[in-house]
Amino acid sequence: MSVPSSHDERREAASPEPASTSGWSELVVSDVVSVDGGGPANALLELEHVRRAGADVALVRFNRPESLNPIDKDTIAALAWLLETFMSLDAALVPDAVVLTGKGRAFSAGGDLKGYQTLYRDPERFRRFMDDFETVCALLETMSSVTVAMVNGPCVAGGLELALACDLVTIADSAGIGDGHLNFAQLPGAGSSQRLVKAIGSAWATQWLLTGRLYSAEEAERTGLIALRAPDEELLERTLTMVADIARHTPLGREKMKKLISIADNSPLEDGLKLEKDLVFDYATTSHDVVEGLNAFAEKRPANYLGR
After folding, report:
1. How far apart are CA 236 and CA 179, in angstroms?
2. How much is the mean pLDDT over the chain?
3. Residues contacting residue 169 through CB under 8 Å, at least 6 positions apart
4. Do the beta carbons of residue 135 and residue 7 sit within 8 Å?
5. Dihedral of alpha carbons 140, 73, 152, 213, sign
6. Helix, strand, coil shares of the chain as percentages rounded to 5?
7. How does 83-117 read in b/e, with b if 16+ C-beta sit within 10 Å?
8. Strand pairing category for 45-52 and 55-62
9. How far apart are CA 117 and CA 121, in angstroms?
10. How crowded is residue 302: how many other Cβ atoms within 10 Å of its Cβ?
11. What SS3 class is residue 107?
């Protein structure tokens, strides 16, 4: 199945544990996404189905290592299709975690600058690309799966914009990360100027955005952006261990908690407190999982969460 090239067209048309052959991996069939080694070698995304301590993980690698994994319109269209496919599944089939990383020596060195020369001359296509990029970022922020940017190498410009939309960022000791748009007279159009300020504060973000520097993993960790920093050879293992710890919780609870975090990030305190109360009231009085969690505690047994 080919991935449509735009959001409008879509509306129309480590040492992991062995993965189960059932579930979402059987449903993700596309000529731009290679699943568990099946499919075309030149697919835009390489997808590995990993299980770790009971967690069901979709490990997504950008698959153009020779050009340092550019985040262009085709990659964004493929990623949007994949995430929308996950979100269209029954709650029991949605992966517990989606981990984005790059194949080869880079997470992503940014956008396709040569391609922009053509794209900028077609305002309609450029607007559609920006809308699709915004859609991908929104999906990463709102889906029930915990989303992680596992930065294995340089992460710049569009790569940073994707990382900022994820719930968590993990990074290899040798990796660098930064905005970099101004280095080529560009501006961020998918969130860096907004999410970076919220993530690390205006003082740090101003420095990152105006200098265009690539910051070391240690420097990035000091800003508070990084959830986990690890030696290169341990990054995958430690990232999977972290997401497995998160994945043991109810998927509906994770989704609601992500919503509460978003409310706190985007609302004045007074408004946020009211929205929190309303959300928690609805969750506590309508959810199967919230009752199941209490029953499992009282009965001293593992919980059977259904994601509803």
Report:
1. 24
2. 88
3. 148, 149, 151, 163, 225, 226, 227
4. yes
5. negative
6. 50, 15, 35
7. bbbbeeeeeebbbbbbbbbbbbebbbbbbbeeebe
8. antiparallel
9. 7
10. 8
11. coil
d(CA 150, CA 91): 24
- Helices 251-266 and 269-286 pack at an angle, to 10 degrees, of 170
Residue 131 in 3-state DSSP? helix
> Is it the case that residue 230 has pLDDT exceeding 80?
yes
- Residue found under tokens 């560009």: 186
Query: What pLDDT shows up at residue 2?
Result: 44
Average pLDDT over residues 152-178: 97
* Residues contacting 121, CB < 8 A, separation 6+: none
User: What pLDDT, in 10s, does the model give residues 57-100?
Assistant: 999 999 999 999 999 999 999 999 999 999 888 877 889 999 99
Give per-residue burial for 160-170: e unless 16+ CB within 10 Å, then b. bbbbbbbbbbb
pTM above 0.90, yes or no: no
Residue 271 structure tokens: 């408004």
The pLDDT of residue 34 is: 85
| Cβ atoms 55, 241 nearer than 8 A | no
